[in-house]
């Protein structure tokens, strides 16, 4: 009997030692890495979609109200710019696709980009892959596992989304499938794109920032496509436009599913091909990985950090300019819509919009949503700082005449300057957009709107630096998760009566809609003070702890 048990154990151990067994254990490891943040993303996305579908009947109880909504919204540039193309929104399938998919699709594609780039490049940047590559696994096998794990996670998301929609609302099975598969398609498309980008760039941090910039630019193209002057085919040039074209089973297109699937396969296959041609820790497009700190002959540290931050500044700045400018161009359309359909004003009041007949109030709402642009820039900044340490690029601090606290403070000051530039670009771009349609936003209001975005970005920088100083491995994942989860929490509050103490945990709840509302100087001062405190405490902790290279 003992001999039989020994034979079974030996056979099991032999199976686990085969290349397939080792690869499956690696896949489980990748799934464990995605599990904590993935659970937060799945819960937030599934609940938001289910709640939007569930309150559809209460929000528009009669057929007449639903038809009036469809007549007023479908083809209206202001609302289609915010949520995407409206198709049959007098039905629960069309309304869910438009109202829930509009804000959630950008969120899930960001999640896909974060998840895929993390698994595809982080271990390599930190030197972990060398140990695995010393065994039986090839670089291609490691990379395939990094692609399969997010695919399995998003499959779980799609299944739970369908189940939640069917349980809470009266949506049909085909309607729930179109929504869930459309969202999952965006995840896989941008996830595969992110996996390709980290093959072309020197590090995960740089690839991720470029990827987030591409997400913003493609979103801007989708928003631009709803303007009356633009051709209808423009929406087909962007994945955000593909999602808008899905519509319902009766009136909609199945082509987006083909485009999402085909694009994902092409990006993934290209990345798998390139991963064997690229040197470890190298890049196929932007040169080799750089070390932290100035290079011989020891150029100015300030110049070096500005050069390092320039791609992110240009990318996020361009996204802010395009989004704010386009939304400014449709401000008049929004006001005209409210005049024709005043009942919708009560619905918008749930988002804090007190005077929807004022174009400045609409601009305030939009700019408040665009606070994610400088906030994501801030999150990328602190995540990049952690990547420099984890990957060993900060090893130069041990040989250069450069204190680690000086390097960190210099990098943060350059990042703060970038946040100010991006925030002001958002405000003044909205002014330019309104001027095109004849409703000029006052320059002082544009300045106030831009400045209003800075404190919350500084708050997240302080939070990130504090985490970096105390427990650095959590820096990137925790900052991104808290940022996007707290933003989704405020969106959920518009549809569900969430307890006030929970909503109070989100800093976005206190963000005034400037210029539609007066700035809250007390809140701004608190955010700035907390952010600076976090920076100070994080810098001190960083000076006192050992270097932690994963």
Oligomer: single chain
Q: pLDDT under 50 segments (min length 5)?
A: 5-15
Helix amount, in percent? over 70%
Shape: globular
Q: Care to count the β-strands?
A: 0
- Along the chain, the helix and strand elements come as HHHHHHHHHHHHHHHHHHHHHHH
The helix count comes to 23
Key phrases:
550 residues, mainly alpha, 2 domains, 23 helices, 0% strand
Record the SSE blueprint.
Elements: H1 2-17, H2 19-54, H3 56-59, H4 63-73, H5 77-83, H6 92-125, H7 129-133, H8 139-168, H9 173-200, H10 204-224, H11 239-245, H12 255-275, H13 301-329, H14 331-340, H15 343-349, H16 359-369, H17 372-390, H18 404-436, H19 443-451, H20 454-470, H21 475-493, H22 500-503, H23 521-544
Helix pairs in contact: 2-6, 2-8, 2-21, 6-8, 6-9, 6-10, 8-9, 8-12, 9-10, 9-12, 10-13, 10-17, 11-12, 13-17, 13-18, 14-16, 17-18, 17-20, 17-21, 18-19, 18-20, 18-23, 20-21, 20-23
Account of the protein in words:
This protein folds into 2 domains: 21-290, no CATH class; 301-545, no CATH class. Residues 5-15 have low confidence and may be disordered. The protein has helices spanning 2-17, 19-54, 56-59, 63-73, 77-83, 92-125, 129-133, 139-168, 173-200, 204-224, 239-245, 255-275, 301-329, 331-340, 343-349, 359-369, 372-390, 404-436, 443-451, 454-470, 475-493, 500-503, 521-544. With 550 residues, the protein is mainly α. It has 23 helices and no strands. The chain is 73% helix and 0% strand. The protein is globular, with a radius of gyration of 24 Å.
């Amino acid at each position: 009997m003992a001999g039989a048990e020994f034979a079974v154990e030996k056979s099991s151990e032999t199976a686990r030692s085969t290349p397939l067994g080792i690869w499956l254990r690696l896949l489980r490891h990748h799934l464990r890495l995605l599990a904590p943040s993935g659970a937060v993303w799945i819960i937030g996305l599934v609940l938001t979609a289910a709640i939007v579908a569930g309150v559809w009947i209460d929000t528009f109880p009669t057929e007449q109200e639903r038809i009036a909504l469809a007549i007023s919204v479908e083809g209206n540039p202001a609302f289609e710019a915010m949520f995407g193309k409206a198709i049959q929104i007098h039905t629960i399938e069309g309304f869910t696709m438009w109202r829930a998919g509009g804000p959630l699709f950008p969120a899930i594609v960001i999640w896909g980009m974060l998840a895929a780039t993390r698994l595809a490049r982080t271990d390599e940047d930190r030197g972990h892959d060398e140990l695995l590559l010393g065994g039986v696994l090839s670089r291609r096998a490691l990379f395939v596992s990094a692609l399969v794990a997010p695919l399995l996670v998003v499959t779980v998301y799609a299944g739970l989304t369908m189940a939640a929609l069917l349980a809470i609302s009266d949506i049909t099975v085909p309607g729930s499938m179109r929504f869930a598969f459309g969202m999952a398609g965006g995840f896989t498309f941008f996830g595969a794109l992110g996996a390709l980008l980290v093959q072309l760039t020197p590090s995960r941090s740089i690839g991720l920032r470029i990827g987030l910039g591409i997400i913003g630019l493609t979103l801007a193209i989708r928003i631009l496509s709803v303007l009356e002057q633009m051709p209808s085919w423009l929406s087909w040039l962007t994945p955000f436009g593909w999602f808008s074209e899905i519509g319902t089973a009766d009136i909609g297109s199945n082509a987006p599913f083909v485009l999402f699937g085909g694009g994902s396969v092409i990006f993934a296959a290209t990345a798998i091909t390139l991963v064997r041609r690229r040197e470890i820790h190298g890049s196929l497009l932007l040169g080799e990985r750089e070390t932290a700190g100035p290079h011989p002959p020891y150029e100015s540290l300030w110049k070096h950090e500005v050069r390092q931050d320039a791609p992110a500044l240009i990318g996020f700045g361009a996204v802010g300019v395009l989004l704010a400018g386009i939304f400014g161009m449709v401000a008049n359309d929004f006001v005209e819509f409210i005049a024709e359909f005043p009942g919708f004003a009560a619905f918008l009041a749930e988002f804090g919009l007190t005077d929807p007949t004022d174009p400045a109030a609409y601009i305030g709402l939009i700019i408040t949503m665009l606070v994610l642009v400088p906030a994501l820039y801030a999150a990328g900044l602190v995540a990049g700082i952690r990547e420099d340490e984890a990957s060993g690029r900060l090893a130069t601090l041990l040989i250069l005449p450069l204190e680690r606290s000086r390097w960190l403070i210099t990098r943060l000051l350059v990042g703060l300057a970038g946040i100010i530039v991006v925030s002001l670009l958002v405000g003044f771009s909205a002014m330019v957009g309104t001027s095109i349609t004849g409703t000029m936003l006052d320059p002082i209001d544009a300045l106030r709107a831009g400045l209003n975005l800075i404190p919350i970005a500084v708050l997240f920088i302080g939070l990130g630096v504090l985490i970096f100083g105390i427990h650095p491995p959590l820096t990137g994942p925790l900052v991104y998760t808290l940022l996007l989860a707290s933003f989704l929490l405020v969106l959920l509050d518009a549809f569900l009566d969430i307890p006030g103490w929970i909503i109070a945990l989100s800093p976005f709840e206190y963000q005034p809609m400037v210029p539609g509302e007066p700035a809250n100087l007390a809140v701004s001062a608190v955010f700035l003070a907390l952010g600076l405190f976090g920076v100070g405490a994080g810098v001190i902790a960083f000076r006192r702890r050992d270097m932690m290279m994963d």
